Amino acid sequence: MNKDVIFLNMISRDLCIKNPSSDIYYNKPDVLIDTGLDGNLALRLLKETNVESDLKYIVLTHSHYDHIGGAKKLRELTGAEIAIHKNGYQSLKEGDGQKTASSLFGADFDFFEPDISLEDGDEIGGLKVIHTPGHTDDSICLLDREDKKLFTGDTVFSNGRPGRSDLKTGDTNQLIDSLNRIKQLDLEKIYTGHGGPGKPEAIDRALNFLKTSYI
Ligand SMILES: [Zn+2]
Ligand SMILES: [Zn+2]
C-alpha cells in the first residue's frame, strides 16, 4: 500500500495565499486531513492529484473554521464521511460560532452534522487518533505508526511554535500536557496545520517556547 502524503495546497499555493486557510493533506490511500476554507478548491486539488475517486474520509483536526470551512461542500461533492473528535462533533452539530471561530472570521457559517465521532485511541483510515486538547478541547493528532509520521493540526507548527490557547476551550496547561504526550512518540516527520511539513524537533521547541513564555 502506498501511504504517501500529498501536501495539497502546496500544489496551488497561489490560490490559498490570500486567505487564512489551513494546510490540507491527503494521506494515501483514502484520507483527507482538513479541508481549508473552500470545498470547491479542495476538490479541485484532489482532482489535480488524481486521488478524488479514492477519498473515503475527511478527518478534521479540530473545529476551527479555517480547517473545516470546506468540509460540508466537499462531502456533498464526493460522498466522503466527515470525522472529528466527539467534542467538535457536538459544536458543529449545535452550530457554535465562537468555538469554530467562524464569528472571528465574520463568516455566516453553514453548520453541519459530521458522520463520525472520534475518541482518543480510535483508528481511522489507518491513522491512530490522539486527543491533544489545549489549542481547543477537540484537537486531535493523527499518527501513522508504521511511517512514523504525525498530523498535528494546530497543536504545533513546523516553525516550532505551539498553537494559540487563548480562544474558546483553549487551555495552556492542557497544551503543554498534549505536547509532552506527542513528544514521546517515535516520529520522523510532522505535518502541521499551518506552515507545512516539519521535523519532530518542532515539538520540543514549542514546549520550550511555552515554558519561557509562561513562567
Ligand atoms: Zn488553524
Ligand atoms: Zn485552530
Topology of this structure?
Layout: E1 5-7, H1 8-11, H2 13-16, E2 25-27, E3 31-33, H3 39-48, E4 57-59, H4 65-68, H5 71-78, E5 81-85, H6 86-94, E6 116-118, E7 123-124, E8 127-131, E9 140-144, E10 149-153, H7 172-183, E11 189-192, E12 197-198, H8 201-214
Helix pairs in contact: 3-5, 7-8
This protein binds zinc ion (ZN) (2 copies).
SSE succession: EHHEEHEHHEHEEEEEHEEH
Beta content comes to 15-25%
If strands are numbered along the chain, what order do they take across the biggest sheet? 1-2-3-4-5-6
Structural class: alpha/beta
Question: Looking at the structure, what is the overall shape?
Answer: globular
| Assigned CATH class | Alpha Beta
User: Helix count, per DSSP?
Assistant: 8
Write out the CATH superfamily name: Ribonuclease Z/Hydroxyacylglutathione hydrolase-like
Question: Which runs of at least 5 residues are low in confidence (pLDDT < 50)?
Answer: 14-18
Average predicted local confidence, pLDDT: 91
- Can you tell me the CATH architecture? 4-Layer Sandwich
Ligands, deduplicated: zinc ion
Helix share bin: 25-40%
Report, as a whole number of angstroms, the end-to-end distance.
46 Å
Taking the sheet with the most strands, its summary is: 6 strands, mixed
Q: If you consult CATH, what is the topology? A: Metallo-beta-lactamase, Chain A
Count the domains. 1
The gyration radius over C-alpha positions equals: 16 Å
